[in-house]
């Protein structure tokens, strides 16, 4: 059973996506990940984007631990329905009906909708981005998506990518660099942040 590990809504059980189409983050990995994020002081009042959300457990955990707003992005209809149920649970527990929202669509199309217009700035500026892409996603496809992510980040943002330990390090776009990584069993977490191109 998946649950909210800690925070104001800690202990609340979450619905899981039926079947094996998603790969839920284990409570052990989730607890270690959020302990690290709290040490980085990136959770309080963060605007959180949970891409390839599955059941939405990472974004919802962030909401429980003090995020200002969370958007769960998922394409699969069954997963979208579960995200909506879980978002409703945490929003009710935290008495904030707008805290966690769900958007159905492909990750790239949603990111494109936030992209900066010529001569303007990005429509959204995210402080914390979770990415747990399905393993069949190629490294080239992931690199393309990371390029889009780099365009919608706040200057002090943190990006977390969850992959199999058998997967290579992601190909970072020019505006982003890795600053940490951590292995937990068969899972590896990559932590990245935006940089000003030409400053490194």
UniProtKB/TrEMBL annotation:
Superkingdom to which the source organism belongs: Bacteria
Enzyme Commission number(s): 2.1.1.171
Protein keywords: Methyltransferase, Transferase
Pfam family, one: Cons_hypoth95
InterPro entries according to UniProt: DNA_methylase_N6_adenine_CS (IPR002052), RNA_MeTrfase_RsmD (IPR004398), SAM-dependent_MTases_sf (IPR029063)
Alphabetized Gene3D superfamilies for the sequence: Vaccinia Virus protein VP39
SUPFAM superfamilies, sorted: S-adenosyl-L-methionine-dependent methyltransferases
Enzyme kind, highest EC tier: transferase
GO molecular function: 16S rRNA (guanine(966)-N(2))-methyltransferase activity
Record-given protein name: 16S rRNA (Guanine(966)-N(2))-methyltransferase RsmD
Species for this entry: Paeniglutamicibacter terrestris
